[in-house]
Amino acid sequence: EDKVVQSPLSLVVHEGDTVTLNCSYEVTNFRSLLWYKQEKKAPTFLFMLTSSGIEKKSGRLSSILDKKELSSILNITATQTGDSAIYLCASTGNQFYFGTGTSLTVIP
Amino acid sequence: DTAVSQTPKYLVTQMGNDKSIKCEQNLGHDTMYWYKQDSKKFLKIMFSYNNKELIINETVPNRFSPKSPDKAHLNLHINSLELGDSAVYFCASSPRLVDEQYFGPGTRLTVT
Predict the structure, then answer these.
(1) Do the beta carbons of residue A19 and residue A13 sit within 8 Å?
(2) Do B44 and A98 touch (CB under 8 A)?
(3) Residues B85/B91/B97/B100 CA torsion (nearest 10 deg)
(4) A59 CB contacts (<8 Å, ≥6 apart)?
(5) Is B90 on the interface with A (CB under 8 A)?
(6) Residues of A in contact with B103 (CB under 8 A)
């Protein structure tokens, strides 16, 4: 059965900390791995990774895909309270599979 | 400009009723989706349409019926609503199947 598993389920850090969120996948005909941020409303797209080992960066956020280990990490450096959200990982094969998300809370 | 819009944003109705949720995207995307997000925030795909054709139809009750009159619209009709249908329903679109998706604001459905 195709699935995506994220860890940890929740995380509480202080402003300025660096966090690493994990995503592992088992998906038939894997095509890509995507990260989304969900605050109060709809998920917003962060990154899409299709090739192994390539790092995608946007400001303080970065992500790497390891196709050998069937996993990806999302790093957030110098966290801010505005980073508090649920971070969703999704893998695509024949369709989309979302993980259960990691709830990140950044305390001032 | 709203890229993916849904109406209504909130829907409160009684068990047994029939209701519809509408979705429109102005991004020119070929593919549209319906997702259900439960109280634990788990996103589960329900349907996917590519160029008005049903591509993915996950195991959802046949009380749920999607309709795509054109590439820019994907509506969701729900018959005989049940308590367990209470959730947030998200519409999304992507340029192609299994490409990055853009989500609508969601419709919070409450069945009493």
Answers:
(1) yes
(2) yes
(3) -120
(4) none
(5) yes
(6) 42-44
Inter-chain contact B43–A88, Cβ cutoff 8 Å? yes
- Residue of B82, B79, B42 whose CA lies nearest to B63: B79
Cβ of A96 within 8 Å of Cβ of B90? The answer is no
Instruction: Count the neighbouring beta carbons within 10 Å of the beta carbon of residue A101.
Output: 24
pLDDT of residue B33: 93
Query: pLDDT confidence of A2, banded at 50, 70, 90?
Result: confident
Locate tokens 């894997």: which residue?
A30
d(CA A95, CA A85): 25
Q: Which helix (H) or strand (E) holds B110?
A: strand B107-111
The reply to whether residue A34 touches residue B90, judged by beta carbons under 8 angstroms, is: no
CA distance B111 to A44: 27
C-alpha–C-alpha distance, residues A40 and B105, integer Å: 10
Q: How far is A41 from chain B (nearest CA, A)?
A: 6
Facing residue for B41 by CB, picked from A34, A86, A95: A86
CA-nearest residue of chain A to B96?
A95
Kindly report, residue by residue over A11-58, the tens digit of the pLDDT: 999 999 999 999 999 988 888 899 999 998 899 999 999 877 788 999
